[in-house]
Every structure is written in C-alpha cells, then in structure tokens.
Amino acid sequence: MSHLNYISAKQAVYLILTCILATVDVFLPAEVAKYAGRDAWMSALAAPVIGYLIYLIIVKLCLLFPDLSLAGFNRLLLGRYLGAAVTILYVLTFLVLSTSAVMQFSIIMGSAFKPESPPYVWHLVILVPALYVTYKGIAVPARMNELLLPMGLLLLLSVVLLNIPEIDLQEFLPVFYDGYLPPVMGAIIMGSTLGYSMLLLALVPIISKKEKLIQQGPLAFTMVALALLAGTAAIGIFGPILTSMTLFPALQMIRNIDIGFLTRLDALIVTVWYTGFFVFLCAHTFAAASLTRDLFNLRGYRFLMVIYYILVLIGANVYITNVPLTRWLLNVPLAILLYAMALVIPLLLYLVAKLRGYPRQQTK
Fold first, then answer.
1. Rounded to 5 degrees, what are φ and ψ at 199?
2. Buried/exposed code over 104-134 (b: 16+ C-beta within 10 A; e: otherwise)
3. What is the pLDDT along the chain (364 residues), one digit of tens a residue?
4. What is the DSSP letter of 198?
C-alpha cells in the first residue's frame, strides 16, 4: 500500500473527535437537558469516561491484529460465516449513520435557514463533495480535518466566552435537584454518542505507528469533556426547561451574541456543522467501503464508494422529514445501536481473542 494512503494515529483520533463533536452539537444538548436538567454538566463530565473506556477496548482489540481490519480478524475469531455476518452488520451500521448525518444536515438547513428548499438539495450539497474528496481514500479528508478541528474547537470556545455575561450560574443549582438518576441517564445517552471510536475497526490497517493510539486517548477525551461542558452553557443562558424545548441550542447561543459588530453569526455555526458532517460522511462511507472490500477480497473500493453514496442519497430522500421522530431516533434507539456496535461486540471479540491466545504471529 502506498505511503500516501496511510494516516497518522493523530489524524485517526481527530477523525473520531470530529465525528463525535459534529453529532453532539445538534440535538443532543436539548435531549440531555431533558433528562438531566440543571445537572447536565455532571453528565458532560461523566460521558467522556464512558467514551474513553469504549475507545480503550477498541484500540486494544485492534492492536491484537494491527495488520487486519475487522473483516480480517472476525474471520479468525468467529469463523468464515459468523465473522462475515458481523462484518456486514458493521457495514450496514456505518451506512445508517451516514444517512443519519445527511438527514440531520438537511433538517438543520430546512428548519433554521431555508425552509423553502427541498431536502434533496442539501443532501447533494454535502454528498457530492464528500464523494469527490473520499474517492481516492481517507488520507485527504483526514489531513484536511487535522487543520479544521482546532479551528472548530476555537470557535466553540469563543461562543462560550462571548456568552459569559449572559450565563447565570444559579441555573445549575441546586446540585442533584431531581436526585442522582437524571444525570446518570444523561451521561448514558451522551456517552453512547462517543462510540464513534468504532471507526478504528476499519481504519487500523492504514494507521501508521498504531501504538500511539493509546497515548492520544486521554487528551482527546479531555477535549471532548470540555466541548460537552461548553454545550451545557446553554442551560445557564436559557434555563433547563427552555433548553430542553429548543431545537438547536448551539444555534441559539450563537444568535444570543450581540456585542457591537459581533451579531448574527449564524454563518459560523453553519460552517462548523457542514464541515463536521462532511468529515463524518467521508469517514463512515470509507469505513463501509473498505470493510466490504476486505470481506470479499476485492481489489479496490472506489466503485463501492459510488454505490454506497447512491444508497445514502436514496435513504435520505425516502425518509420523510419529521423532526420529533428524528430527535427520538437519535436518542434511545441510537444509543442502543452504538453501545451494541462500539462496546458490546468489540468487548466480546477482545475476550474471544484473549481466550484463543492472541496476539500470536500474524500473517498479513
């Protein structure tokens, strides 16, 4: 494989971070406020712990088979047919998540900015560039994301800092206002969305210096914790009840900024959301195509990429835009799916691998 097709451990972790932050910034703050209320900040601190444990299990599993993707070591651990079935399940999951990202972007644009535009326009706006960029591999979007992610985090920090005069800390008191269960439920729901570390199951063969993935984890999930805490600042501005009822709390925080010439900065949050979903789509469709290639021992994946982008477009357009239904699907059903695919199955595979004596000498 050409050296140009490899990505660094840092770039791989940045891809995961962008996929996490792109999704937790849309509907999740309102959903967590609905569960945890004024204690959402505790959920934001607990969720990265769950996310880091998921990340650690996946990394340790991948490092047992550093030259194989999930399709390869599934065959070793589960046999030809059961291993293929589990791999196909992951391919379908990546495609479902890609379709979900496209729908979320069209809902944002259709609900908050351009309600007169048909959804398929926004689907094409994000799908066509993503296909073009990812057609030759994941290295280009990974390097691009390495530059974009710090800028996005800086913008998020700036939004919070500019809203500090409006934040009322009394909205976060008293602690455990409704008991211990609400922040725990908020942490469980929020923690599931940090399970996009499962991208490593497809990307690990093309990551150089894979051992650095362990070192990158603590810093990455510390950044996630700070970003989630920044998202809970909406409760200090609007209160827990209004935040839980708001469709896009992050957008309202942006619109709340009114300092001299700094006002109506909607374009900034749209740019962040677009680039976030763009990278999300690139990473997940590439993961689906590369796993399919490895499963069937195909020579390439580019034709698969085209097929999968068409399927995502069809899936996104068949879906009838229903915002309440979308918010519900991205809540408990998504949490169950992500915990199953990012935690339960990788943990079982890791236990099976250890029981069977891996790591042992691998044949590439």
1. -55, -30
2. bbbbbbbebeeeeeebeebbebbbeebbebb
3. 444 478 999 999 999 999 998 888 777 778 788 888 889 899 999 999 999 999 999 999 999 999 999 999 999 999 999 999 999 999 999 999 999 999 889 888 888 788 788 888 899 999 999 999 998 889 999 999 999 898 888 888 888 888 888 888 888 888 888 888 999 999 999 999 899 999 999 999 999 989 999 999 999 999 999 888 888 888 888 888 888 888 788 878 887 877 766 666 777 788 888 999 999 999 999 999 999 999 999 988 899 999 999 999 998 887 655 667 777 777 889 999 999 999 999 999 999 999 998 887 544 4
4. G
Cα–Cα distance, 198 to 240 (Å, whole number): 32
- The amino acid at residue 309 is Y
Give the span between the Cα atoms of 260 and 336, in whole angstroms.
45
Q: Give Cα separations from 173 to 42, 43, 164, 235, 262 (angstroms).
A: 12, 15, 17, 11, 30
The span from the CA of 255 to the CA of 358, in Å, is 54
Residue 215 identity: Q
Can you tell me the distance from the alpha carbon of 25 to that of 19, in angstroms, rounded to the nearest whole number? 10
The CA dihedral of 192, 82, 58, 23, to the nearest 10 degrees, is: -30
* Nearest-angstrom CA–CA distance, 290 and 295: 9
Q: Are 64 and 358 in contact (CB under 8 A)?
A: yes
pTM of the entire predicted model = 0.92
Residue 300 phi/psi, 5-degree rounding, is -150, 180
Contact between 127 and 98 (Cβ < 8 Å): no
CA distance 194 to 203: 17
Question: Pairing relation of β-strands 207-208 and 262-263?
Answer: unpaired
Q: Please count the CA atoms within 13 angstroms of the CA of 53 that sit on its side-chain side.
A: 11
Rounded to whole angstroms, the Cα distance separating 359 from 354 reads 8
- Cα(106)–Cα(112) distance, integer angstroms: 10
